[in-house]
Amino acid sequence: MTGRLPHLIETVRVSRGRAPLWHLHHSRLQASADALGLRLAHLAEPSGADRVVRILAGNGEATIEERLPGPAGPLPVAFSGLPHPGYPHKTDRREAFVRALAEVAVDGASEAILSTTEGWVAEGSFTAVLWWEGERIAAPPLGLRILPSVARRRIAEIAGPIAEMRIDPQGLAARSFFLANAARGIVEVAALQGESTCRDARTAALARRFWP
After folding, report:
1. Successive 10-residue mean pLDDT values, the chain, 212 residues
2. Same domain for 63 and 79?
3. How far is CA 6 from CA 37, 94, 134, 211, in A?
4. pTM higher than 0.90 for the full model?
5. Nearest in space to 166 (alpha carbons), one of 115, 128, 127
6. Burial class of 125 by CB neighbour count within 10 A (0 to 12, 13 to 18, 19+)
7. What CATH number is associated with residue 151?
8. Nearest 10 degrees: Cα torsion 68, 208, 187, 94
9. How many CB atoms lie within 10 A of CB 63?
10. Residue 130 and residue 27: Cα distance in Å, rounded?
């Protein structure tokens, strides 16, 4: 995929006739386009039937794909041994995440958590990683070159500022953590490394407030 500019991706949930997080998607799209020198086509807010709309935008054009919403139930999760590639913009250069997910799927996990080469938890292959730090919600620093997640921004809207903290896999495993993305909302963790985890009632309460 070298030799050309990347295309930006936005995966937008449409629910009850509208895209409730469109303001966050459009803001991220524009910021990434400005940073990468891409020209965006005009994009209208998706509407209509409940579905997930995947927008691939770049070079003044946009391609739209649609699918039904995926499951939102708890996921079995595992730490990937592959390093996080640095992913500050949501582009179609996602090969590292595809490999990480394939790696953990062999052992029955449905989501892979990647860490930086220095050993800090970064993000999942398709979700943001967040956890309860006492009474606060915490997440890895954006300075680790992780994606500025739409779901993470939505959580900050409803729960207040998120504490940015570096954490290693062992530290994350010792905390009550959860996942989130803009297609599924907040997703609880069913198991980590094949072992069942205890769910936190605060996560379920937060999930109920996620969609406007």
Report:
1. 78 97 97 94 94 94 93 94 98 97 97 98 98 97 98 98 98 97 97 94 97 94
2. no
3. 10, 10, 39, 30
4. yes
5. 115
6. buried
7. 3.20.10.10
8. 60
9. 11
10. 22
3-state SS, one letter per residue, for 194-206: CEECCCCHHHHHH
Residue-level pLDDT at 5: 79
Do 21 and 119 lie in a common domain? Answer: no
Structural domain count of the chain: 2
* Per-residue model confidence (pLDDT) at position 3: 60
What is the structure's pLDDT at 112? 98
Per the structure, the complete domain to which residue 205 belongs is given by: 75-209
- Verify that 196 and 96 share a domain, yes or no: yes
pLDDT at 70 (0 to 100): 82
- How would you class 106 by CB atoms within 10 Å of its CB: exposed for 0-12, middle for 13-18, buried for 19 or more? exposed
